[in-house]
């Protein structure tokens, strides 16, 4: 009889939770209690990571900053233009480079993963820097937006005919358009703490946004015979996010360390070389 009563009460409670719309919230809290990690779909801890990438910031930088913030020990296998073809062939054969691209990560437990955003998302799931279930779609939108923004800058700096004029057009037109988009969805300015793009706590998406903003800040400060531009000045929410994120203790330690590679363009514009001759 007691078992029947208990079952009835349990079913009634579950129905009440379901119809109240609080089921996902309660399940998330239970999940946090069990795993000790925030976010929608936590996975096992990462004890050590090897990052396979080129000797530069690029698509590896958000991953590095996440590992630094989470305190996960890591090392790097770095490629140059000369060593990449051999490493690529070996990586495809071994299954490390699924699509013949870097970055990739590997772990002692046998995890291999490629695609920079998939890697960042997985690290987020392993470290409690995952978005809440209700925010997953928003986080995916923001993440894909950072990729679109990044591609606009990559398109000109890797163009064989990259010129100062192309730089000027990017600074004048392309970057402001994308910065305006991100300013609209940026979290409100907070005086004492960072407001996050992915909800109430720091997530993998914040590192993608930080990285694409940082790439644009650095690009606008490269001397190409034109006035240097403080590219975030007209975007107060992005400026606040960028500034406050960069004073997080572990991020500061990384930025000031020799692990942080210098910002470097693939090549300087041809026009700049002519002007300097």
Automatic annotation (TrEMBL):
Domain GST N-terminal, by residue range, is 47-131
Instruction: One GO cellular component term, please give it.
Output: cytosol
GST C-terminal domain location is 132-270
Q: What is this protein called?
A: Glutathione transferase
Pfam families linked? GST_C_3 (PF14497), GST_N (PF02798)
Name the Gene3D superfamilies on file: 1.20.1050.130
- Per its record, what are the GO molecular function terms? glutathione transferase activity
Domain of life according to the entry: Eukaryota
Name the Gene Ontology biological process terms.
glutathione metabolic process
UniProt-listed PROSITE patterns: GST_CTER, GST_NTER
| CDD domains for the chain | GST_N_Sigma_like
């Amino acid at each position: 009889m007691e078992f029947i009563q208990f079952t009835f009460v349990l079913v009634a409670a579950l129905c009440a939770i379901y119809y109240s719309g609080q089921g996902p919230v309660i399940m998330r809290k239970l999940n946090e209690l069990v795993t000790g990690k925030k976010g929608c779909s936590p996975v096992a801890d990462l004890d050590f990571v090897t990052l396979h990438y080129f000797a530069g910031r690029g698509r590896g930088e958000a991953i590095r900053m996440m590992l630094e913030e989470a305190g996960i020990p890591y090392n790097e296998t770095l490629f140059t233009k000369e060593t990449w073809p051999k490493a690529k062939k070996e990586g495809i054969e071994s299954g490390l480079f699924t699509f013949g691209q870097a970055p990739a990560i590997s772990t002692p437990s046998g995890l291999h993963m490629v695609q920079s955003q998939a890697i960042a998302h997985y690290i987020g799931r392993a470290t409690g820097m995952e978005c809440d279930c209700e925010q997953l779609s928003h986080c995916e939108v923001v993440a894909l937006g950072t990729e679109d923004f990044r591609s606009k800058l990559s398109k000109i700096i890797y163009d064989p005919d990259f010129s100062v004029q192309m730089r000027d057009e990017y600074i004048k037109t392309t970057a402001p358009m994308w910065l305006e988009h991100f300013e609209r969805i940026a979290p409100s300015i907070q005086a004492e703490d960072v407001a996050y793009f992915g909800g109430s706590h720091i997530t993998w998406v914040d590192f993608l946004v930080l990285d694409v903003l940082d790439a644009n800040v650095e690009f606008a400060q490269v001397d190409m015979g034109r006035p240097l531009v403080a590219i975030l000045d007209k975007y107060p929410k992005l400026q606040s996010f960028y500034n406050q994120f960069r004073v997080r203790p572990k991020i500061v330690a990384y930025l000031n360390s020799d692990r942080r590679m210098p910002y470097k363009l693939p090549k300087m514009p041809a026009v700049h070389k002519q002007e300097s001759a």
